[in-house]
Amino acid sequence: MSLPRVVLAGPQAGALLAALHAEAFPPGERWDAAAMEVLLAMPGTFAGVARCGVEEAGAEVPGGFVIGRVAADEAEILTLAVREGARRQGLGHALLAWLRTEAASHGARRLFLEVSAGNAAARALYRAAGFAEAGRRRAYYADGSDAFVLAAALDDPER
Fold first, then answer.
1. Using CB atoms within 10 A as the burial measure, which of 14, 25, 64, 119 is most buried?
2. Is 140 a catalytic residue?
């Protein structure tokens, strides 16, 4: 199975990314277009949008996105979202693979992220991609759930 296509998105994609984020996250955790635009304008920050192959009005529908940031030799995933109707189609894997390549091309050697202890699907995705627990932040999210801090090396292009 080939991975879905991921394309680079800039600050002008803020409204699209905010709409996708709203479909994937609960109301208290959604980022608006202005926040996306500010974030994407920051040095070292980049985003990729995955196309899920479904067409609406003759155009591929964006199914998800990832935003990452590189500082020195470390990178972090700031957010990764896949719309509900596009899940279980390889978009999460495609977004992770794209971000790993992009981060490595900017000099990153390790990749970090935070994920809710209650998000079993995301934790399984990250585990399959070679991430391991590096820490835990108690009551990190608005709902009181803990965040696992996960890390992966970027020296393995297959992951």
1. 64
2. no
Distance CA 128, CA 123 (A): 9
For the chain, how many helices (H) and strands (E)?
4, 7
Whether 107 and 125 have beta carbons less than 8 Å apart is answered as no
SS3 56: strand
Amino acid identity for residue 88 in this structure? R
Q: Cβ of 35: how many Cβ atoms within 10 Å?
A: 14
- β-strand partners of 148: 115, 136
Task: Report pLDDT digits (tens) over 41-70.
Answer: 999 999 999 987 655 555 667 889 999 999
**Residue 24 in tokens:** 């994937």
Tell me, yes or no, if 84 is annotated catalytic.
no
Provide the 8-state DSSP code for 89. S
pLDDT digits (tens, 9 = 90+) for 73-83: 999 999 999 98
Question: How many CB atoms lie under 10 A from the CB of residue 80?
Answer: 24
Q: How far apart are CA 119 and CA 85, in angstroms?
A: 17
Catalytic residue among 126, 133, 140, 141: 126
